[in-house]
């Protein structure tokens, strides 16, 4: 099953392994994330994942109650800011160090479970 979008294959681990590449790419990555504008509305990167995907929906159900509350609060706050046609005040923006991937580990776990289930469902059983 190919994965597209924010869950697709990434070169981030290779870049983070090299200090020179990390030093070169970090300002560009921060510039791009600020240009995207989701932090101005109080959202984190994983809030942008497409919820219509089955694996993302199942991963959302695995969040702790606190993470679920925080996620819903960010959506309500961003929705209100969108209705007012203005981003949040600068002190309420999500800082780069706060923008962590909280949902990705759950999505990866769900994908691994689906892959394992598919493998076991298609195994050929034969007599010796």
UniProtKB/TrEMBL annotation:
InterPro entries to which the protein is assigned, alphabetical: QCR7, QCR7_sf
Protein keywords: Electron transport, Membrane, Mitochondrion, Mitochondrion inner membrane, Respiratory chain, Transport
Cellular component annotations (GO), alphabetically ordered: mitochondrial inner membrane; respiratory chain complex III
Subcellular location: Mitochondrion inner membrane
Record's bilayer topology term: Peripheral membrane protein
Lineage top rank: taxon: Eukaryota
Keyword Zinc among UniProt keywords: no
Pfam families (UniProt xref): UCR_14kD
Main location: mitochondrion
GO biological process, one term: mitochondrial electron transport, ubiquinol to cytochrome c
Gene3D superfamilies: Cytochrome b-c1 complex subunit 7
Family per record: Belongs to the UQCRB/QCR7 family.
Function: Component of the ubiquinol-cytochrome c oxidoreductase, a multisubunit transmembrane complex that is part of the mitochondrial electron transport chain which drives oxidative phosphorylation.
Protein's UniProt name: Cytochrome b-c1 complex subunit 7
Protein species of origin: Marasmius oreades
High-level lineage: Eukaryota, Fungi, Dikarya, Basidiomycota, Agaricomycotina
């Amino acid at each position: 099953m190919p994965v597209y979008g924010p869950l697709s294959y990434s070169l981030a681990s290779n870049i983070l392994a090299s200090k020179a590449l990390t030093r070169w790419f970090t300002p560009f990555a921060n510039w791009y994330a600020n240009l995207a504008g989701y932090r101005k509305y109080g959202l984190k990167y994983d809030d942008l994942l497409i919820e219509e995907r089955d694996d993302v929906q199942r991963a959302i159900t695995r969040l702790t109650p606190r993470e679920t509350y925080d996620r819903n609060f960010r959506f309500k706050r961003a929705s209100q800011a969108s209705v007012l046609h203005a981003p949040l005040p600068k002190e309420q923006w999500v800082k780069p160090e706060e923008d962590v991937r909280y949902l990705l580990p759950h999505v990866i776990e769900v994908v691994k479970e689906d892959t394992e289930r598919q493998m076991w469902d298609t195994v050929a059983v034969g007599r010796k």
